[in-house]
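Exercise 7. Predict the structure of Hcy-binding domain-containing protein from Kwoniella newhampshirensis.
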Amino acid sequence: MEQAQPRRILVLDGGMGTTLETLGFDVNTPLWGSELLSSDPDAIRDIHKRYLAAGADIIETATYQLTPGNLCQRLSCSEEQAAQILRVGVDVPHSATLSLARGRVALSFGPFGSTLSPGQEYGGLYPPPYGPSTSTNAFPAISGPSSPAEIEDMKGTEEESAIKALAQFHLDKLRVFALHAESWEKVEWIAFETIPVLHEVRGIRRAMTILNQELDGKYGKGDHKSDVGDTWWIKKFWIVSPFPSGQHPQSQYVVEDSSTDRPHVTVEQVLSAMVEGDDAVPNGTGINCTNPSYLPSLTKSFTSTYQSILSSQPSRSLGSNLQFVLYPDGGQVYDTISRTWSTPSASGGPETWAREVFDVAKDLEKAVTKAGEPLWDGVIVGGCCKSSFEEIRALRKLVDGAS
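Solution. The predicted structure, encoded as tokens:
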């Protein structure tokens, strides 16, 4: 019997925090309502089930901005209790997939900026050692005229310190799940999302490299070793960024006293940060938490840039193992200071949103390398904040209609 081909477009779920808010739960807390994993896990489980019923192939855990530290602070619990609550974040969606006999679990990891107040997912202004030593997200932060060599030296030293600090931040959270086999086995993807700066992309890749080495030592022998040689403990992961106002949040490396606006990081720089170097390369890259109106131009830039990268690397020229992951917001604008949303007067309903997003996803799915092979290894498409069950249901209909 001929084996069925894997689907080229998979449907992701929609927003969690804003959906909780719509359902009447209080999300105006530092944990955005995710403390329900401790007080009312059934409320979270019900949302996962409803997304699966709406047609999601992948559902994300409600752990985006949670860390052992902020859980301990908010709930006055021990580190071990905090770790148990985090792992409930995996148990709950996994039980939902079992009850409906469909779906896979992606472990949600927000940026370091999601733990700051106000949040820095759209700005990437991180305090040292996680970012530059002045009020910018660009390296180097230098006052006065400097030579190119001085700029590179400062950039290298300060940026490397930030990469190390951010790698440790993500590694500490990863270990909570990964060193607990029962939880780790339930995860298929790790979703590093809304990552606003390239030094955090590099920090994440380093964290995954270190983690995989640790897990090879822990699970690659003894009771947890697979009889068929399958390294089940090595998880797929994606890294996606927001593009507020259609631009990457990070500024270019510039001298601090420049009188002109700093240009933003380019898509070429984003993809280079994803795939160059010796650290673990993500299985997916793309865009989240961005207004859908910016998607056509942004995804065309991703496609053309990645075509150029592959054509310049003969070893990868026949295709890519990168999937494109796309989950924009519902079209509203979020104010990180007031923590409120504004709705554009011209916004459409779920079907309009789904059509706009699906058309972009379909173009990504059709993209090819210069050798004529599929450029992306597949497309994962869903919604972020202010998208919910109806948007995902409408998106599922379009995906099914095109297959």
